[in-house]
Specification:
The structure holds two protein chains of two kinds.
Chain A (H helix, E strand, L loop, with lengths): L2 H7 L1 H6 L15 E7 L5 H4 L8 H5 L14 E2 L5 E2 L4 H8 L3 E8 L7 H10 L8 H7 L10 E3 L15 E2 L10 H10 L4 H17 L13 H14 L6 E6 L14 H20 L6 E7 L19 E6 L7 E3 L20 E2 H11 L5 H8 L16
Parallel strand pairs in A: 1-7, 1-8, 4-10, 4-11, 5-6, 5-7
Antiparallel strand pairs in A: 2-3, 4-9, 8-9
Helix pairs in contact in A: 7-13, 10-11
Chain B lengths: L4 H10 L7 H5 L3 H7 L9 H4 L4 H13 L13 H26 L3 H13 L13 H9 L7 H10 L1 H6 L11 H8 L12 H10 L9 H10 L3 E3 L14 E3 L9 E3 L2 E3 L3 H14 L1 H15 L6 H13 L4 H9 L15 H11 L7 H10 L23 H18 L5 H9 L5 H8 L4 H10 L7
Antiparallel strand pairs in B: 1-2, 3-4
Classes of the chains: A alpha/beta, B mainly alpha.
Chain lengths: 392, 464
């Protein structure tokens, strides 16, 4: 009996310990969460163009995506919004009601530094010590064995860093180290509190990864799909983690951004393909999965002098997965008229990104509301979790 | 001879990791050994001296990119992208190889670490063409000759370097009322408007000088970016052809005329002088002194710098008007720097170099370093963002990163371990930091190859 089956079977016992939230515990240990960080500030107006906004074509000029009539036209979501033509997989998911869009969202950060912005995205506080996802793992209900979080990268991103043990994995080109040498290194590390823990985490991850083939690109543009595919395999492993973090870069399109085609379109294609690979490798666990796709901030509404966009404020965030109550675009649309822009230049944020994240953690991972507003997202009582994000 | 703590700290934390014999050669005055390395003019290490200049690489890149598309009759040359990679790829590889050969061999490892420090402070990333072939040029041409000079000169040289200008897209930032923009408006075709892009101005304020909390506003970003319109690179085609291909070129026709305001001060200078004046004031700003002092202390002393140490280094910077040798002298004098060994976690870059130095061996082939660094998560000259690589242990001490080091250590052990006495080698390069626990386990290894792998994987060798 694997861990998840076991916990499902003893749900009543958990209930007796006084966690009423676990009445619906069928999903509590089956639930999978993937967080995809888009570093560099995704242009939300390119990914989810507000084609119904009367100011859209004029404000975006050469970056506007044709609404209809050509091969490169936007993929409609509803009368007001569409998806970038590169996002065909996401569009299919939307039609299956497995993609939910939140537009005009931002973190609480209002300046325009990538690096401070990413710290906010990952920690939800101004003082980057540990990540909100690591803090969420610390209050995950249910019995825990092994690391519940994995980063698909050589370096653990800040969002997953903190006191709760997590692991990380990335493909290698070097030969595997033999077990005897690893055992000896474990002895060598016995007195070192950091290295002994890290080595154990890495060995667990390698064990889980054992079945993975050694082919496919380790680096380069196709590597995201490979990592996404690997993330799915970790998440379906019986003793594997339940939460995975993926990151991609290259969204900082200051010059020659392109519209239906071009630099940003190529990035979006890579993202779309990676998400499809994740879905495939999750298999039947897809129905229990939520993928959160978010970026540190948006980009200027107007095109800059080098056919790109500069750092802005609000962008979009996406929820994808079989557990998502999708097929909808959420958020109050602030409009693109000159007077409605934030500081006269950016898409105005109307929803705090934490509302989305809290809504997911509460309904999907069943994290207690009190812990959410004090520990996971400190001082966030006034930011109400979005409701109805997850299928009942 | 038992090597004392001072020598271990000087060689392994301030330097690049001891080579065999280095700890003993430092002598009693470890601080003096460091400061002596700052004396005198810079002579570039042999490994980097013969690299082609950035201007040469860029001229070649421009020639390939600008060439008329070859006819179908020439199938070998049809793929322009491939030709461009054929210029930039080898340039990158040669620069990386030279960088790590120099680092493995240098007898001035403190000075060399400072060069690397500034390259990371003024980060460009080789994943963006044509910067791929120019990243090493920024280090060797702009930074290396000024590493012990004045910060303002270093700053100006970096911001004028084609690598930085192209990385932050400044060649495409155009004053909306510049001569070029006015001319374009008269003959307007299409809907492209000519205007600035903020990237260069923002990153200079946030990452190169004041720091993100340095007290600047969005208006200052725009003011600086506007003042720097026209800072560009020579070459180009047609009417835009100007200057020497690949060299800094101030394009007056693109510069926004008029007075700019930055941090409450007006700059009425014309042309290139306007941007230079602002940069010189930024170099002198107390926030810059604090920002640079914090980064130096974090890099050389501890992840979380003490306010006293930062204040001492910032004070030396300000008192000397940005003299870097005076600043480093204060850094080396911070008492807590000498209290404990092994306070810093090595980055993969540190780890690789210290491994090569311990083995007294340069890398044999470019792919030995390019591949190893990529695998360990820190590809050479490729931080992926203008913020550079992070400099604290939690950024690097993850599970997968550790396993990749162990894989590398095992591969090196298999290749180079046969003739090595790893306990003696550990004693020679780690000195007083080499613990009995590690000695015991290394001495019990089943083979010399495994013993070397254990030494390179040991807790002491992961830190500096």
């Amino acid at each position: 009996m694997d861990r998840r089956t076991f916990l499902t079977a003893t749900g009543a016992g958990v209930l007796a310990t006084g966690c009423p939230g676990l009445v619906l515990a069928r999903a509590s240990t089956d639930a999978r969460l993937v967080v995809v960080l888009l570093r560099g500030a995704l242009d939300g107006l390119a990914a989810v163009p507000p084609v119904g906004d009367p100011d859209y074509q004029r404000q975006r000029g050469p970056l506007a995506i044709p609404v209809s009539g050509s091969a490169g036209s936007a993929l409609p979501l509803n009368t007001d919004f569409a998806l970038h033509p590169a996002l065909t997989g996401l569009h299919a998911a939307y039609k299956q009601q497995q993609l939910l869009v939140l537009h005009a969202t931002a973190t609480a950060y209002r300046a325009r530094s990538h690096f401070a912005g990413q710290d906010w995205l990952e920690t939800a506080v101004g003082d980057p010590q540990d990540g909100w996802l690591n803090r969420a793992l610390a209050v995950l209900p249910g019995a825990i064995t092994g690391e519940q979080g994995i980063a698909l990268s050589s370096r653990v991103p800040l969002v997953l860093r903190g006191d709760t043990p997590v692991t990380s994995w990335a493909p290698s080109r070097l030969p595997e180290v033999d077990a005897d040498t690893l055992d000896r290194i474990a002895m060598l590390y016995a007195d070192d509190p950091v290295l002994s823990v890290r080595l154990a985490e890495a060995r667990n991850a390698d064990q889980l990864a054992g079945a993975m083939d050694g082919t496919g690109p380790v680096f380069g543009p196709q590597s995201f799909a490979r990592l996404a595919e690997a993330a799915g395999r970790f998440l379906v492993a019986p003793d594997g983690p339940r939460v995975a973090v993926l990151e991609t870069t290259g969204w900082d399109t200051h010059a020659n951004q392109g519209a239906a085609q071009g630099q940003l379109a190529n990035r979006l294609t890579g993202l779309d393909q990676g998400l499809s690979a994740l879905r495939s490798s999750l298999g039947s666990s897809w129905r229990d999965t939520v993928v959160v796709i978010a970026t540190e901030f948006g980009r200027t509404v107007a095109v800059n002098g080098s056919r790109g966009t500069d750092h802005g404020t609000a962008s979009c965030a996406l929820l994808l997965g079989g557990a998502v109550q999708g097929g909808r675009v959420l958020g109050e649309w602030p409009g693109l008229s000159a007077g409605s822009l934030y500081q006269g230049r950016d898409l105005r944020p109307t929803t705090d990104l934490r509302a989305l994240l809290k809504g997911v953690l509460q309904a999907h991972l069943l994290i207690d509301a009190g812990a959410l507003e004090t520990r996971v997202f400190p001082d966030s009582r006034q930011v109400r979790p979005l409701q109805g994000l997850i299928r009942g | 001879m038992d090597i004392a703590k001072d020598q271990v700290i000087a060689a392994n934390r301030f330097g690049l990791g001891a080579r065999p014999g280095e700890l003993a050669a430092i002598g009693a005055d470890a601080r003096g050994w460091l400061l002596d390395q700052l004396d005198g003019p810079s002579s570039p290490p042999a490994a980097v001296r013969n690299l082609p200049s950035s201007a040469q690489v860029l001229a070649e890149f421009q020639a390939v990119r600008g060439a008329r598309r070859p006819g179908a009759a020439d199938p070998a040359a049809r793929d322009k992208g491939q030709q461009i990679r054929g210029v930039l790829g080898p340039a990158y590889r040669d620069q990386v190889f030279a960088r790590y050969r120099a680092a493995a061999a240098t007898a001035q490892p403190f000075r060399e670490r400072l060069v690397h420090f500034w390259t990371n402070h003024f980060a460009v990333s080789a994943d963006k063409p044509p910067v791929t072939g120019l990243a090493g040029g920024l280090e060797n041409e702009a930074i290396r000759p000024r590493v012990t000079g004045n910060f303002a000169d270093l700053l100006l040289a970096v911001e004028r370097h084609p690598s930085m200008l192209l990385y932050l897209d400044n060649q495409a930032s155009i004053g909306p009322n510049s001569r070029l923009a006015s001319r374009a408006a008269r003959f307007r075709r299409g809907d492209r408007k000519l205007d600035i892009n903020e990237n260069f101005g923002r990153e200079i304020l946030e990452l190169h000088t004041l720091g993100v909390d340095g007290g600047y506003t969005q208006a200052d970003v725009i003011g600086l970016a506007t003042a720097l319109t026209g800072w560009s690179v020579g070459g180009g085609q047609g009417r835009l052809r100007a200057g020497t291909p690949g060299e800094f070129e101030f394009r007056a026709a693109v510069h926004e005329p008029g007075t700019r305001r930055v941090l409450g001060k007006s700059y009425s200078q014309g042309g290139v002088d306007q941007g230079e004046a602002i940069l010189r004031d930024l170099a002198r700003h107390p926030a810059t002194a604090r920002f640079i002092a914090t980064k130096l202390v974090r890099h050389f002393v501890a992840d979380d710098p003490s306010p006293a140490a930062v204040a001492a280094v910032a004070k030396a910077y300000q008192a000397s008007d940005g003299d870097l040798t005076a600043t480093y002298t204060a850094l080396v004098s911070v008492p807590e720097a000498w209290r404990d060994e092994l306070t810093k976690w090595k980055t993969p870059h540190d780890y690789l170099i210290s491994g090569l130095r311990a083995l007294n061996a340069g890398p044999q082939r470019p792919r030995d370093v390019v591949g190893a660094l990529m695998l360990m998560g820190q590809p050479a000259y490729r931080p992926g963002s203008p913020a550079g690589w992070p400099d604290r242990a939690p950024d690097w001490a993850g599970a997968d990163g550790l396993m990749k080091r162990i894989e590398w250590a095992t591969a090196v052990g298999a290749r180079a371990g046969s003739g090595v006495d790893s306990v003696a080698l550990g004693q020679a390069v780690l000195g007083s930091a080499f613990g009995d626990h590690s000695k015991t386990w290394i001495s019990r290894a089943e083979s010399r190859s495994q013993a070397l792998a254990l030494l390179l994987a040991s807790p002491e060798f992961q830190r500096r």
